[in-house]
Amino acid sequence: MTKKILVVEDDENLGNLLQLYLIKDGYEVRIETSGKLGLDALVQYEPDAIILDWTLPDIEGIEICRQIRYQSDIPIIMISSRTDELDAVLALEMGATEYIRKPFGFRELLTRLRLHLKRYEKEQQQQVRVSELVIGPFKVDLVMFKVYKEEVEIPLTKREFKLLLHLLEQPGDIKSREDIIEMLDFTKGDKRTVDVHIRRLREKIEEQPSSPKWIKTKSGIGYYFNDKAQEVSYNS
Length: 236
Description:
Shape: elongated
CATH architecture of the largest domain: 3-Layer(aba) Sandwich
Distance between the termini: 24 Å
Number of domains: 2
Number of helices: 8
CATH superfamily of the largest domain: Response regulator
Strand content: 15-25%
Helix content: 40-55%
Structural class: alpha/beta
């Protein structure tokens, strides 16, 4: 199946050149010239990878990268004329898969894109092999990213899903607020936001959120999933 590449680049000449080289290399391509249009295309076009410029007319590419990472794990190749090493570090910390400085060689970019697509496809295949996690009354569909309690689906946001899965995978293992902040890519020190997400998650999975049975608090340390009677099992 032909891979779809989304290019978010406001320089028309560079965008056209990227489109030309990508099509020649066998890809289907969509070009967008602003951050907002790029985010819209992420949902509508469902690309397999994104080539993202840092400097855009409405929203900086680094912010677009951060927002994409809340929705998808697809490869993001960020391109920029910025030469400071700290810019490259920031881009990678915000979720970019690769950082390439302008001007760049198109062959190099295509090679890096091809390698990241292969790596991502391999990771996806490995994830599909383990498609379901079951613990106590909870079942987590790791393919469709859905959670069920006693066969009834629990509507969760992406962050709530990620947080619950983080706790479910190692029941009894206390996760500090710092650990959860890092896992959810929150701003460092945003501990109160962690507490808010825990509270919202409890409201959705607990019968009595004020007296939780499943998500327990270890005072002064963090949170853990309490299930002494059941072990975690994975189904494929």
